[in-house]
Each structure stands twice: as structure tokens, then as C-alpha cells.
Design brief:
283 residues, SH3 type barrels, endopeptidase fold (from Nostoc punctiforme)
Length: 283
């Protein structure tokens, strides 16, 4: 049997996706069901339990394939980046509605009617995909009793020109392992959502990103010759250059997204972990 990355392969000893028949061993195989995330943020966990490790997050409007629905948990694969894990079934709805727009601010509120004085029903993070039914004044209707300030949306296929400027909006956001929004974010989540906002697909985890994005740059101890948008990798960590000297990254040292000299980050990480920079990529 070929080896597959378990984080992107819907296969367990007891159950696997039907398309993997003959490729992986499982007691049973099943065709998945198309579902959509209908909460602002849906945690994707390693096991079907709220106390289980948070691997990543899905956001409103994301398409997922559901392979198992058991005791309130869905075993799913995310369409956007292929990640596999467990999502609370309350965060999912049957079917798929083709989005027309996406949220382009770090977070926007969804109101029950087109009036900012009315209570907000929930919020939606950057990248949330919505289907606009109609525009009413300054608002876009995105569902039954669901209205978003229209200037916080752009057409779904309208992308940002500078992915670094997207990442800069997350300065001082708290660090959260597995997080992908302004409520909490990790290093690879920051890279992924920033690139996606610019129309550049990126995998979820650091080691996946290091393998798949950009062209490797030669670098020396002085770390000269870098420019805005270069992506710097360590084993298990990643950050984005804001300019030729400063790194923007979500990190567990500050427990924040910060901007600091790359040399400072390099020396600190080397001193704590004995791990140096493994590669620098240019997109």
C-alpha cells in the first residue's frame, strides 16, 4: 500500500473514503456527503471530543465532505486544503451553496436585519464565503435574517494584490495553536489565509508549505538580500518578511502575531531549540 499523509487522507482502520478503495486498507468504504460550514468558525479536532487537540479551523461557507456522523461529531475532509478531522455536526449543513462574495476584513458582524443598532447574530472572519441574495442600502443579505455590511465583502474571485498586507492586519492577534482567524491564529494559519486572500492556494501545515510554495533562496548568516513577501521556514515554524529585515509571524514566545528583526527571531529560536532556518522561499 502507498503511504499517504494522514492529515489529508480520509482513512482509518475501520472506515475510508470510497475513492481510496484499493489504495488503503479499511474495514469499510463510504461515499462522502457534501456539507457546508454554517458557523463563523468550526474547530477541526484530532478526535471527536471538545477537549481533543485543535488541528485547524474551518470558516463559514467552506465546503466539506462528510464521511461519518456519530454522536454529534462529523468526520470530514475540508475541500479548501484537504485537511481531515472532526467537526461538531451543529456547525454543518447539508448541501453546498455556490458563494458569490467573500469577507475581506479580519472580522465582520452578521445582523438579523439591515440595521447596525440591532443585535448581531454572529460574526464571520476573513475569507468567509457567502452567497449574496440582494443588497439593501449599505447591507448585503447573505441568508434568512442575515445581513452583512456590504463594504466588508468583495466578489468571490476578486483577490488582494499584496498578501503581506493581509498578514499585517493580524498584528497583535493572540497566538492559538490551530487557529486561523483574528480571535487566534498560528504561524502556518497566518501564511495560509494571507496567501488565499491573494488567490494563492496553500496547504495548512508548515512542513506542507515548505514543500510546496515558492522557490528556494540561497541565504547566509547575514540574511541579506531578502525582500517583502519572502517566506522563512524553520522546522515547525514559518513567518513572512515585511521588508528586507523584519519578520511577521505568529509565535508562542510572544503568544501574539508580531513584527521583529529576522535576526532576533533566528537567534532566539536557535538558542531555545538548537534549530536554524531550514529554507527561505520566494513566491
Amino acid at each position: 500500500m502507498p503511504q499517504f499523509d494522514p492529515r489529508q487522507t480520509p482513512a482509518r482502520p475501520d472506515l475510508a473514503a470510497a475513492q481510496l478503495r484499493g489504495l488503503v486498507e479499511a474495514a469499510d468504504y463510504i461515499e462522502g456527503r457534501a456539507m457546508q460550514v454554517v458557523t463563523g468558525i468550526a474547530d477541526v479536532r484530532r478526535e471527536p471530543a471538545h477537549e481533543a487537540l485543535l488541528d485547524t479551523q474551518a470558516i463559514y461557507g467552506e465546503a466539506v465532505t462528510l464521511y461519518e456522523d456519530q454522536e454529534g461529531w462529523g468526520w470530514v475532509q475540508l475541500a479548501r486544503d484537504g485537511y481531515v478531522g472532526y467537526i461538531a455536526m451543529a456547525a454543518l449543513a447539508e448541501g453546498w451553496a455556490e458563494p458569490t462574495h467573500r469577507v475581506t476584513v479580519t472580522r465582520t458582524f452578521v445582523y438579523q436585519c439591515p440595521d447596525i443598532k440591532m443585535p448581531a447574530r454572529r460574526s464571520s472572519p476573513l475569507g468567509a464565503a457567502v452567497r449574496v441574495r440582494a443588497f439593501q442600502g449599505a447591507f448585503a443579505q447573505v441568508g434568512d435574517c442575515a445581513f452583512v455590511f456590504a463594504d466588508h465583502l468583495k466578489p468571490y474571485d476578486a483577490y488582494e494584490k499584496d498578501f503581506v498586507s493581509v498578514a499585517e492586519r493580524f498584528l497583535h492577534v493572540p497566538y492559538l495553536w490551530g487557529g486561523k482567524t483574528s480571535l487566534g491564529i498560528d504561524c502556518s494559519g497566518l501564511v495560509q489565509i494571507s496567501l488565499e486572500a491573494a488567490g494563492l492556494a496553500a496547504p495548512r501545515d508548515t512542513y506542507m508549505q515548505e514543500k510546496s510554495i515558492g522557490v528556494p533562496l540561497a541565504f547566509d548568516a547575514d540574511l541579506t538580500g531578502l525582500r517583502r513577501g519572502d517566506v522563512v521556514f524553520w522546522r515547525g515554524h514559518v513567518g513572512i518578511m515585511r521588508d528586507e529585515t523584519h519578520l511577521l509571524h505568529a509565535n508562542a514566545h510572544h503568544m501574539l502575531v508580531v513584527s521583529e528583526p529576522l535576526r532576533t527571531a533566528r537567534d532566539r529560536i536557535l538558542g531555545k531549540t538548537l534549530q536554524g532556518i531550514t529554507s527561505i522561499k520566494r513566491l
